Amino acid sequence: MATTQELPKIPIFDLSTKNLSPSSSSWLPTCKSLREALEEFGFFLAKYENVSSQLDKQVFHVLEQVFNLPFETKSRNTSDLSFYGYVGKLPHAPVHESMGIPEATTLDAVQSFTNLMWPSGNKEFCENILCYARLVSEMEQLVDRMVFESYGAEKHHDSHVGSTTYLLRTIKYSVPKLDADNSSNMGTNIHTDKSFLSILYQNQVNGLQIQLRNGEWLDVDVPPGLFVVMAGDAYEVWSNGRIYAAKHQVIMKADKPRYCLAMFSFNHGLR
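The chain above was modelled as a monomer; its predicted structure follows.
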């Protein structure tokens, strides 16, 4: 579905806190460029060295652990909210499987999920997922601050952060079965996210496709260790339509599984 025509280069921002200071002369120009990327593309790629290479290895290791559990165990992850609990075995997305951890920046929430999956405990999973969620929430708050300041709305940032909640979804896309029409390789069908921001982090397996404003589709080739930072419907509404909530989907073409962590931020109960 992705076009073969030449497509624009997607911006990459280094959001590592040691390289980005609000007191520096580059702060406001970088805020402007980042906000313009969300307006034009609806997403950008981010470098964030606060998530170390060691944590990278550990989180994907524990993701494999949780998805190797029996279906009966994974299906204990239930919720009254759509896509907050276990999702899998979908006819329209046969290679998709995911679980949600609401309030994933809190120890109680991650420990509760861990105990649900491993009644005897799994310290490695709990510690790594909690560490990851907290670091990525800090990146999300940094992006919010940059957008708010670029729009001259910095006085509203602290209250926004104070009422922000996070959902972390752990996702696995299996290797598709071979068939004549490739109907088995759909990982996630076309949609926009309901969140303010969605921050995606994957193992070195691609599959994400994003629709640009002109209607063309882009196969997103994510370099190792980089994040995809994407605006959701709530950010588009908040910005009076200036920020673009891009439609996207996942099509699996790889010969090995794709693991992904998706952190969604919500405000005042918007989901």
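The chain has a mean pLDDT of 92.
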